[in-house]
Amino acid sequence: MSKIDVLNVEGKKADAVELSSNVFGIEPNIAVVHQVVVAYEACLRQGTHSTKNRSAVSGGGVKPFRQKGTGRARQGTIRAPQWAGGGVVFGPTPHSHALRSNKKEKKLAMRSVLSGKVADGELVLLDKLAFEEPSCKQAAAIIKALGLQDKRVTLVVDDDDVVSYLSFRNLPKVIIYAASEVNTRILIDNAALVMTVAVAKQLEEALN
């Protein structure tokens, strides 16, 4: 078990919690993390890029000049690739860029990122987020109390914690996600990863 300090919203140590070493204390597998992130970003590509080859370009149905006697190289159509306005040779065509990663690789990648965050001191655990109503001012005060106001922060909250989402969503450099949304790309793309103990337990249960 890995023992991690828990802070309150004032940035002071409130407790310590033991989390599974299988999730928060493994040796990060950098190769698998890279593979999963590349696959995730590849799936985001639309793949709609397209060009027209010589058969798709309109016009050029008539031979531009006679075959012999002009002193020029013979030409069959002005839509050949060597002509301005002609077709494109070996241009991109619409296709899927999707890559696949299996479930074990995805879980290993997330465990590796979480363990790396713990080792680098970039995982911040809070005891709770208790907003009575949405308040961007209170949210900004929490980020400042944690000393993260100048860092890119990823905040992970419970799926039904709408009030916290509304409070943090407009803060600069802070991106907020529900626990069910997180993946390797989200967990790694920040300078500080903030979550409550309850969310950490949810991830521990899902990744164990």
Automatic annotation (TrEMBL):
SUPFAM superfamilies: Ribosomal protein L4 (SSF52166). Keywords: Ribonucleoprotein, Ribosomal protein, RNA-binding, rRNA-binding. InterPro entries: Ribosomal_uL4 (IPR002136), Ribosomal_uL4-like (IPR013005), Ribosomal_uL4_dom_sf (IPR023574). It comes from the Bacteria. Forms part of the polypeptide exit tunnel. Belongs to the universal ribosomal protein uL4 family. NCBIfam families: rplD_bact. Part of the 50S ribosomal subunit. This is Large ribosomal subunit protein uL4. It comes from Fannyhessea vaginae PB189-T1-4. The gene is rplD.
